């Protein structure tokens, strides 16, 4: 058993309380490898932002749980070396079962998500409660989910999103004791968050998505005043990256994300954590595709992963400063 406290990590409790008071959201960035971790830490140190490093089931399979744990320990030391002891959480994203959540808690995670959103309500309550009991005994915080996002949730593919029902949230959070709640208000995972039919098109062919269901968010806030809310599927899918990827040989049609102004508005509300993964994938891929097209003779991974890491860092700094509003709050 390795406690997150030995690694210099923190849970989400204080972070969310401060974010709620300050009207900003904590960035939750997914990582699978060293360059992503470095870019996240560099960006968060430079902008003085707290951060949640999140690891999916797929990331655990790709990178190995012990390597990821030691990368999180390395992230803590790296931030100090760069000059700012920012608070860092290591979080399990879309935990699929009690067993996986327990394994993470026993191996240095300071926060876990148990995603029972595809289960019948009572089963979601039961598995979430079981995770909360184990987690809280180890001072680890728990994110749960109610409602179904469109797109792909790790292994779970949902055809259609189902908004969270505000009338269920009090019952769910009081029965389970979870520390934060992921809700469905129109965001979804991946680079195609809406079908072209759901969008309108500008004169130059750019897809404009329908707005998020802020009325549902407001109704949830009324039911649960001061309770930390989480938004998954919150990449904006920047067109500049989509264009670079397509210009240099990629094919990613019908890409559309959540407009940044809507995320900024959400971050000012009870939304305390905003999950971003796809935008990082796009930033790295755009930089690498451009590099290969412009430098066909290069083959040292450092030469193409270096610019990809720089682009990622730039993108995360922009999120912290202009979208989530977390910049400057590391030492609150
Ligand atoms: O919500 C899903 C995240 O973007 C993680 O994706 O399962 O491919 O690592 P992944
Ligand atoms: P995106 O696919 O919009 O980046 O969402 C990531 C996410 O929700 C991770 O849990
Ligand atoms: Zn998610």
Question: Which helices and strands, and how do they pair?
Answer:
Blueprint (H helix, E strand, L loop, with lengths): L12 H10 L3 E5 L3 H13 L4 E6 H7 L1 H18 L5 E8 L2 H8 L5 E4 L6 H17 L3 E6 L4 E3 L2 E3 L10 H8 L3 E4 L16 E2 L5 E2 L5 H10 L5 E3 L7 H9 L12 H8 L3 E6 L1 H17 L6 H24 L8
Parallel strand pairs: 1-2, 1-12, 2-3, 3-4, 4-5, 5-8, 8-11, 11-12
Antiparallel strand pairs: 6-7, 9-10
CATH top level assignment? Alpha Beta
Order of helices and strands: HEHEHHEHEHEEEHEEEHEHHEHH
User: Shape, please?
Assistant: globular
Major β-sheet profile: 8 strands, parallel, barrel
Mean pLDDT over all positions: 96
Radius of gyration: 19 Å
Weakly predicted, low-confidence segments? 152-157
Protein name: fructose-bisphosphate aldolase
EC number: 4.1.2.13
GO biological process, one term: glycolytic process
Function: Catalyzes the aldol condensation of dihydroxyacetone phosphate (DHAP or glycerone-phosphate) with glyceraldehyde 3-phosphate (G3P) to form fructose 1,6-bisphosphate (FBP) in gluconeogenesis and the reverse reaction in glycolysis.
């Amino acid at each position: 058993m390795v406690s997150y406290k030995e690694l210099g990590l923190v849970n989400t409790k204080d972070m969310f309380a401060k974010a709620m008071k300050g009207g900003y959201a904590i960035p939750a960035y997914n990582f699978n490898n060293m360059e992503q971790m470095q870019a996240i830490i560099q960006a968060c140190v430079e902008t003085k932002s707290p951060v949640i490093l999140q690891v999916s089931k797929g990331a655990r399979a790709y990178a190995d749980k012990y390597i990821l744990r030691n990368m999180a320990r390395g992230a803590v030391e790296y931030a100090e070396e760069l000059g700012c002891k920012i608070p860092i959480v290591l979080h399990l994203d879309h935990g699929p079962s009690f067993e996986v959540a327990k394994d993470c808690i026993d191996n240095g995670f300071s926060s876990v998500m148990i995603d029972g959103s595809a289960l019948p309500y009572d089963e979601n309550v039961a598995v979430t409660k079981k995770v909360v009991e184990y987690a809280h005994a180890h001072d680890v915080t728990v994110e749960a989910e109610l409602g179904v996002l469109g797109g792909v949730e790790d292994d779970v593919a949902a055809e259609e999103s189902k908004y969270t029902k505000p009338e269920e949230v009090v019952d769910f959070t009081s029965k389970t004791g979870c520390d934060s709640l992921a809700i469905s208000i129109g965001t979804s995972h991946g680079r195609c968050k809406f079908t072209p039919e759901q969008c309108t098109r500008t004169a130059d062919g750019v897809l404009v998505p329908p707005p998020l269901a802020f009325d549902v968010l407001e109704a949830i806030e009324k039911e649960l005043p001061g309770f930390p809310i989480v938004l998954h599927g919150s990449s904006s899918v920047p067109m500049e990256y989509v264009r670079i990827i397509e210009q240099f040989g990629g094919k990613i049609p019908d890409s559309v994300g959540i407009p940044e102004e809507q995320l900024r508005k959400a971050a000012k509300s009870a939304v305390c954590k905003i999950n971003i993964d796809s935008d990082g994938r796009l930033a790295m891929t755009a930089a690498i595709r451009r590099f290969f097209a412009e430098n066909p003779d290069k083959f040292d991974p450092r030469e193409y992963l270096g610019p990809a890491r720089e682009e990622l860092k730039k993108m995360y700094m922009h999120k912290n400063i202009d979208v989530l509003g977390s910049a400057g709050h590391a030492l609150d």
